[in-house]
Amino acid sequence: MNTARRAATVSIALGVLLLTGCAGAAAEDTAAPESTPVATAEAEAPSGQTVGEACALMQASLEELASYTTGADAAELMSDPARGVELFHTTDAAMRAAAEQVTNEDVAAVATGAADAMSEYTEYLDGVVADPANIDMAALGEQGASLQAGIGALGEVCSAA
After folding, report:
1. Whose CB among 38, 44, 52, 99 lies 3.0–4.6 Å from 115's, allowing a Cys bridge?
2. Mean pLDDT, residues 4-17 taken together
3. For the chain, what is the HEC assignment?
4. For residues 157 and 116, is the Cβ–Cβ distance under 8 A?
5. Closest to 88 (Cα-Cα) out of 3, 1, 14, 25
């Protein structure tokens, strides 16, 4: 059981490490449109929601995800893989809810893509915690890369505003 628990912890920790750069960068990038009125006005979509406003909706869930790499959340994630997955489920729900509020055409698709990737990764982690002895490291890498790509695409759109 000790080895199985360690494998689950490692898979969750690896996932968090894959996200560290992307989540932090996307969250930081969303502040720029609010401080630059010209970029915000140019990025306005027909729905009335600017790229900056749409990205700001996604920011809290990305910051939550980034918080898993430091402090109490990181320690909890490392010591209790099942609780770590619960944290991912919380972030998954927040990201999905935020993506549903995005109406800007430039951001909506990438926000939904990031939320979908988060849901798929969280579902994958459910399986890892349920059966840590049979963790597929290649699949872990693929899931992590997919999530990183989804969040990275969101960061690109948000930083371009």
Report:
1. 99
2. 46
3. CHHHHHHHHHHHHHHHHHHHHHHHHHHHHCHHHHHCHHHHHHCCCCCCCCHHHHHHHHHHHHHHHHHCCCHHHHHHHHHCHHHHHHHHHHHHHHHHHHHHHCCCHHHHHHHHHHHHHHHHHHHHHHHHHHCHHHCCHHHHHHHHHHHHHHHHHHHHHHHHC
4. no
5. 14
Q: Which two tokens stand for residue 143?
A: 């899931």
Amino acid at the residue 20: T
Q: Please, is 26 exposed, middle or buried when counting C-beta atoms within 10 Å of its C-beta (0-12, 13-18, 19+)?
A: buried
Residue bearing tokens 């290649």:
138
Angle, helices 71-79 vs 2-29, to 10°: value is: 150
Residue 120's identity, in one-letter code, is: E
Inter-residue contact 32 to 155 (CB < 8 Å): no
Query: Using one digit for the tens of pLDDT, what is the confidence trace for 29-44?
Result: 434 334 333 344 444 4
57 token code pair: 């909706």
Distant-in-sequence, close-in-space partners of 27: CB < 8 Å, separation ≥ 6: 59, 62, 63, 66
**125 close to 11: Cβ distance less than 8 angstroms:** yes
How many whole angstroms from its chain centre is CA 101?
A: 16
